Amino acid sequence: MESHPPVNVPASPPIQFSGTGPGPQAADGCSVELYRRSAYAGEIELLRPWLPPGTSVLELGCGTGRLTHRLVEFGCRVTGVDNSADMLRHVSDTVHRVQADIETLQLHQRFDVVLLPSGMINHADGAVRRAFVAAAARHVASAGQLILKRQPPQWLLSAQVGDVSGSADESMEVVAVARSPDPEGTQVRMTLRYRIGHDTWTHAFSVITLDEAPISRLLVAEGFAPPEALDAGRLWLSARPQSLQGLFPPHQP
User: Fold this and answer.
1) Which residues, in sequence order, are CB contacts of 40 under 8 Å at separation 6+?
2) Domain spanning 32-38+47-151+210-241: CATH 3.40.50.150
3) What does CATH list as the number for 154-207?
4) Are the CB atoms for 141 and 110 separated by under 8 Å?
5) Residue ranges of the alpha helices (H) in 76-196?
6) For 75-113, what is each residue's pLDDT tens digit?
7) Which helix (H) or strand (E) holds 179?
8) Where are the domains of the chain?
9) End-to-end Cα, the chain, rounded Å
10) What tens digit of pLDDT does each residue of 143-170 get?
């Protein structure tokens, strides 16, 4: 039998998370003061048809409550989970606050909606992505749904050092970016600089670009039906437990 030399497969770049700036940083590098001072930008207004008053919501990775407090204003009954005590300290007492890692969360309670916002599904570690979805599956009600948001792939693939967005009062600048192939997309290692007034913060992180197909495979593997898009850009996705597939019309709140 003919022998062949071993093929050298490049090792994946290290996954990085770090942050700098005024105030404490969470384990993923997110700065507490940055999140506390950042204004709500209407991110979940389009979800309101799926979040009527009285809906029980489990928000995974609630941070300082920027989205959480809007959910409360919708009339939802909200449980907010974050692994940073410094973040949770700024969440309203009207919210059931839980300090825990999402991956190992065990609340022994089911919710009408499990919310995984802010592109958390794009975590660069596939095992973490699976653990996030598994946690959602453990906590979604039998007639409930997981609602998640993915990062826009086009921006992750096109952002360049020096790109600036925002206003005179608040801005975000790309200060470093590198990309490498990944079996499910492209791994992107990026550092952003944020400014609010005279204060600045940096956040270095690693994510993976994800089209809908790998997200669908992941959801189905954890017991969900294939997802449906909730917005025109197809960044917000909804998935119901597999047993309920076909019982609800598309986009049914």
Assistant:
1) 66, 67, 69, 70
2) yes
3) 2.30.30
4) yes
5) 85-88, 126-139, 153-158
6) 999 999 999 999 999 999 999 999 999 999 999 999 999
7) strand 170-182
8) 32-38+47-151+210-241, 154-207
9) 61
10) 999 999 999 999 999 999 999 999 989 9
